[in-house]
């Protein structure tokens, strides 16, 4: 399983419109050892499977990967001045998890690790599949499965890890819009394989939503893209199309383009579109620059509440802050880029549509954040081995986000941590990043995620969360692994 990273400049003649994805050549990252690669048994041949009913509920909660590069950076840099903005506006948001490393022996377990974690959190993962042979048509991201027969088998193994829960599959960016390196027969073979892939995913995971490559609004015409999608089996093997992956075109242009493609397909009731809005807040850069252009901004925060029946979701398929290959090594998380994209956004994310109360709360939180902490009612124990900083990062009527930093003030490292506190009011945590948060009544426990489980003597770790509240107030007492902490 891999993360997406960037491509160098295109090799096509200048007359060819910009490619859609611009960020492939992925590098692998590890999962915990011992994951079983067992799953749903499929036949050796890819068989047809009916697509799930069209559309995604507006209240769908998308999965936030606690092991993403941005989450790791936020956890490791609690004192960085860029951290609060990056944490609130990027790390707090769900982003696609990419599968682009050909690993047939582990892919089922890798997928299951994600879908199991998402199901436990009550969220829906977005998985980007990038394994088709000749992906990127021999460019910097050349690779993938060695041949289509191997790809078909790999997809079956991928599908076996999806399970019965909901998932969103971004199936092979560039694979339909970019075929300049393929002969007519090779293109036909690829499209047939994509159709089999969609059917295999639906057969193994009936609640999966499969979206095929729609390119973007500055590439192929809507009619041409529709013809290609039809050849790739969109009418029988998919739930719709995706556009703008890793690109910067405005959401309005992409919505119009996607609708034109759907119209060219005959507006079938079972097909919708999703759009990558991860970096399109300021639209495309001048001159069509695509490789880490300056002056860009994150776009619409990920949501399935699009207000448009033809558009299932706005997604962050390209993780903001990961380089395209010009500002730094392709795929590397660069805080300067992330900070520039995040700080250019007009506002912080708002809570999900289902979070605010349907009637005004009896009390209204202040328009400015409450004090970051209140002094302890009693002095902390002498020689306390920890201190905690609890800060309200943003607040609105009915909700808030908070940043928590835990410092080990003892003489020995903490290996595996659990921080507990009680809310003074009716606050409820709805999601967390860089920690697993559980709540029973007012009592909350936040635990490490493995990779951030060790806090060196004198070191610290940080996490954040989003919650609901009809009043204000901050916790005043914390315990780390059962020992009381000072509040700073």
UniProtKB/TrEMBL annotation:
What top-level branch of life does the organism fall under?
Answer: Bacteria
* Disordered as annotated region, ranges: 1-20, 345-384
- Give GO BP annotations, semicolon-separated: cellulose catabolic process
* GO MF annotations, alphabetized: hydrolase activity, hydrolyzing O-glycosyl compounds; polysaccharide binding
Chain intervals with Pro residues compositional bias: 1-17, 348-382
InterPro entries xref list: Beta_cellobiohydrolase, Beta_cellobiohydrolase_sf, CBD2, CBM2/CBM3_carb-bd_dom_sf, CBM2_carb-bd_dom_sf, Glyco_hydro_6_CS
Q: Which residues form the CBM2 domain?
A: 379-488
Sorted alphabetically, which keywords does the UniProt record give? Carbohydrate metabolism, Cellulose degradation, Disulfide bond, Glycosidase, Hydrolase, Polysaccharide degradation, Signal
**What are the positions of the active site?**
174
Protein EC = 3.2.1.-
Name the family the entry cites: Belongs to the glycosyl hydrolase family 6.
Q: From the Swiss-Prot or TrEMBL record, give the protein name.
A: Glucanase
> Which species does this protein come from?
Actinacidiphila alni
What broad taxonomic lineage does this protein's source fall under?
Answer: Bacteria, Bacillati, Actinomycetota, Actinomycetes, Kitasatosporales
């Amino acid at each position: 399983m891999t993360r997406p990273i960037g491509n160098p400049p295109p090799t096509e003649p200048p007359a060819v419109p910009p490619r859609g994805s611009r960020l492939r050549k992925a590098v692998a990252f590890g999962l915990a050892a011992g994951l079983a690669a067992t799953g749903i048994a499929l036949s050796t041949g890819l068989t047809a499977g009916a697509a799930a009913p069209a559309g995604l509920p507006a209240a769908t909660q998308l999965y936030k990967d606690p092991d993403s590069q941005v989450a790791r950076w936020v956890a490791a840099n609690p004192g960085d001045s860029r951290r609060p903005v990056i944490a609130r506006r990027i790390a707090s948001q769900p982003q696609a998890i990419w599968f682009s490393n050909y690993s047939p022996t582990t892919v089922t377990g890798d997928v299951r690790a994600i879908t199991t974690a998402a199901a436990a959190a009550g969220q829906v993962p977005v998985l980007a599949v990038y394994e088709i042979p000749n992906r990127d048509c021999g460019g910097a991201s050349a690779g993938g499965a060695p041949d289509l027969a191997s790809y078909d088998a790999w997809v079956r193994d991928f599908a076996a890890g999806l399970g019965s829960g909901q998932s969103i599959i971004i199936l092979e960016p560039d694979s339909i819009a970019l075929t300049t390196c393929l002969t007519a027969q090779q293109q036909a073979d690829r499209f047939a394989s994509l159709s089999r892939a969609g059917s295999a995913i639906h057969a193994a995971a009936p609640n999966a939503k499969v979206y095929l490559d729609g390119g973007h609004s500055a590439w192929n015409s809507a009619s041409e893209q529709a013809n290609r999608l039809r050849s790739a089996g969109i009418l029988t093997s998919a739930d719709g199309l995706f556009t703008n992956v890793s690109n910067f075109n405005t959401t309005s242009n992409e919505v119009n383009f996607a609708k034109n493609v759907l119209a060219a397909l005959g507006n079938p009731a079972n097909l919708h579109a999703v759009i990558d809005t991860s970096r399109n807040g300021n639209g495309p850069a001048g001159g069509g620059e695509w490789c880490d252009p300056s002056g860009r901004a994150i776009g619409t925060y990920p949501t399935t509440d699009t207000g448009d029946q033809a558009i299932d979701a706005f997604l962050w398929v390209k993780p903001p802050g990961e380089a395209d290959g010009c500002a730094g090594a392709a795929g590397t998380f660069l805080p300067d880029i992330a900070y520039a994209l995040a700080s250019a956004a007009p506002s912080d994310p708002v809570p999900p549509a289902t979070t605010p109360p349907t009637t005004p709360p009896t009390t209204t939180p202040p328009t400015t954040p409450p004090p970051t902490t209140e002094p302890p009612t009693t002095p902390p124990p002498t020689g306390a081995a920890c201190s905690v900083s609890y800060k309200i990062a943003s607040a609105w009527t009915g909700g808030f986000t908070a940043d928590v930093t835990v410092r080990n003030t003892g003489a020995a490292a903490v290996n595996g941590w659990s921080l507990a506190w009680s809310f003074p009011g009716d606050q409820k945590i709805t999601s967390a990043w860089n920690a697993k948060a559980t709540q029973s009544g007012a009592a909350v426990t936040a635990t490490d995620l493995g990779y951030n489980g060790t806090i060196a003597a004198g070191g610290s770790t940080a996490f954040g969360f989003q919650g609901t509240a009809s009043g204000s107030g901050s916790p005043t007492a914390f315990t780390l692994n059962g020992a009381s902490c000072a509040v700073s």
